[in-house]
Amino acid sequence: MDTTTQIILFIMVTVLGITLIVVGILVVFLLKDLRGSISKINFILDDVGKVSDSFSKSTLVIEDSLSFMKQSIENIKEQVASPIATFMGILTLISKFNKKGGDKHVGK
C-alpha cells in the first residue's frame, strides 16, 4: 500500500506540475497579447488627439470667420443703414411738410 500511494502521489504531482507549466505559458501569451492591444489603443488615442487638435483649430478658424462677418455686418449697418435711415427721415419730414403746406393752399 505504501508503494501504491507513492505512485499516485507522484502521478498527481507530475500532472499538477505540467498543468502549472501550461498555465504559466498561457499567461505569458496572454500578457503579450495584452501588451499588443495596449500599444494599439495607445496609437488610436494618439490619432484621436491629433484629430481633436485639428478639429479645435478648425473651430477656431470658423469662430474667427463668424466674428469677422458679424463685425462686417455691424459696420455695414453703421455705414449704410444709418445714412439711409437719415435720408428716409428727411424724405418723410419733407413729405409731411408738403402735406401741411398743400392743405393750407387748398383751403384758401
Output the keywords.
108 residues; 1 helix; 98% helix; 0% strand; rod-shaped
Strand and helix map with partners:
Elements: H1 2-107
Describe it.
- It contains 1 helix and no strands.
- It has 108 residues and is mostly helical.
- It is rod-shaped, with a radius of gyration of 45 Å.
For the terminal residues, how far apart are their CA atoms?
A: 150 Å
Q: What's the alpha carbon Rg, rounded to whole Å?
A: 45 Å
Q: State the low-pLDDT regions, or none.
A: none
Structural class: mainly alpha
Shape, principal axes of CA atoms: rod-shaped
Helix content: over 70%
Q: Proportion of β residues?
A: under 5%
Number of helices: 1
Taking the sheet with the most strands, its summary is:
none
pLDDT averaged over residues: 84
Assembly form of the protein = single chain
What would you say about this model in short?
By secondary structure, the chain is mostly helical. The chain has 1 helix and no strands. 98% of the residues lie in helices and 0% in strands.
